[in-house]
């Protein structure tokens, strides 16, 4: 209880910093909000005395401080130029997001975090930079760098997860890949990226919550995971496939919306790279889940048939969120 109190306090300050950043009318106010968000997230990273947590918090602090320095530097150039400072601001925000070509720190920091910290880094910490990017996307010269960053993020997120066996790094590269869809949706409309971000936050959080519930911390825990319930055995594969965007799971719905809009906008080249990367991400998710399903031996299946223990409500609720695509696909398709 003594640990939860400061954790909740820092989490509330973190949300407050995000709120200040996105509601500010000046870049100085947005910078203040980003700094408040940063200084409240560092204690959450270093909540335990461990070399992994300390290394992750130090890396995160240095990268975020570099991004804040670029924003401050660009503010001094607004009196001389117009386009160049906004380009520097975009660079700083992409650095804070961990989007390509500034993704290098994101998997390294993610690999040293706990699951609770992973949820915050993948969801809440992306809100302020994404909304600030949507503000500056009103300038036409920002669109081309955004499209280029989205293509690079799609390729990096797809190929980076192929040779990784660390679950946190796999989720990190998956987040980079999803970032490409959000960046390209910013170029289309604000509503599109908000819809995609809500779906992404819901599905990625559900994956991590299942890992926490089943106490899975590494790939070996995933491969040796055994349960007497067939539903529990299939819950993690189904949620991961939804995160990969396999139709007709929930994760496919926002991608389908963006595909339709990109087709109507004749954005065929970025769409090709996004779809190509989505197939690769599905490949390494299937490669990860194939031994997981094969290792379910026959004795487990027999025991699950004989054992009449009730299903756990919490995993059932988490998995049901990823079956919205089965239940109501038509309203989302024709939205």
Quick description:
This protein has 335 residues and is an all-alpha fold. It contains 18 helices and no strands.
Report what the structure shows.
- By secondary structure, this protein is mostly helical.
- It has one domain.
- It has helices spanning 4-23, 27-45, 51-75, 83-97, 105-110, 115-122, 124-136, 143-160, 167-188, 190-213, 219-223, 230-244, 252-264, 268-294, 298-306, 313-321, 324-327, 329-333.
- The chain is globular and about 65 Å long.
Keywords:
0% strand, mainly alpha, globular, 335 residues, 18 helices
Show the helix and strand layout.
Elements: H1 4-23, H2 27-45, H3 51-75, H4 83-97, H5 105-110, H6 115-122, H7 124-136, H8 143-160, H9 167-188, H10 190-213, H11 219-223, H12 230-244, H13 252-264, H14 268-294, H15 298-306, H16 313-321, H17 324-327, H18 329-333
GO molecular function, one term: NADH dehydrogenase (ubiquinone) activity
Protein name: NADH-ubiquinone oxidoreductase chain 2
Membrane topology: Multi-pass membrane protein
